[in-house]
What does this fold into?
Amino acid sequence: MTPVLAKIVFVVMAVAWYAIRLPHARRAGRTPVTRSARGTRERVLLAISLTGLGIVPFLYVATGLPRMAERSFEPWLAGLGVALALAALVVFRLTHKALGRNWSVSLDVREGHKLIESGIYGRVRHPMYTAFWLWALAQALLLPNWVAGLSGLVGFGTLYGFRIEQEERLMVETFGDEYRDYSRRTARLIPWIY
Ligand code: SAH
It folds into this structure.
């Protein structure tokens, strides 16, 4: 593994990530929203996450900036990054398939919204966010730059930290005891642990 190869892997995997999402986003987008917890706060959080997971690392891959934040390249860390990125893609694909039209980039409830509780949603209630955490970790391991590497964890971590309670509140408002029971049976991100 070399620094150039690590950057290529990062970009190819990022394109794959987007390709997995696109058809699901299109399909979900055609289903009307009936209730939403979107607002300025959500918009800011989404922008922060996009900056950390998208803009900063791509600027780095394209230009090498910021150069003063460069760190030494460790092939074994990058190898671990590839494994985590692959795991992230697999989990991400499973979650999109399971959520179907119930997916939204923000906090929405759609017409005929169903609470998904089985498959990958059987043990964990936010597996798509698990995929994002895995992806952000992979970014940190693949890109040998403190700023471009860690920006994903900071950006997504900010979105996650401020969104998760709101999302669960929206789910309780929509599904009531069904979601409360579901929460009791599941972990947030890591089966049995958290
Ligand atoms: N937090 C989930 C879903 C992320 S997509 C995960 O990490 O896998 C965000 C949208 O999913 C929200 O608009 C919310 O309405 C919806 N959602 C969250 N959990 C859901 C579930 N178990 N079943 C159906 N929709 C869900």
User: Anything to note?
Assistant: The chain has one domain: 3-185. Helices lie at 3-29, 40-63, 75-99, 127-142, 146-175, 177-185.
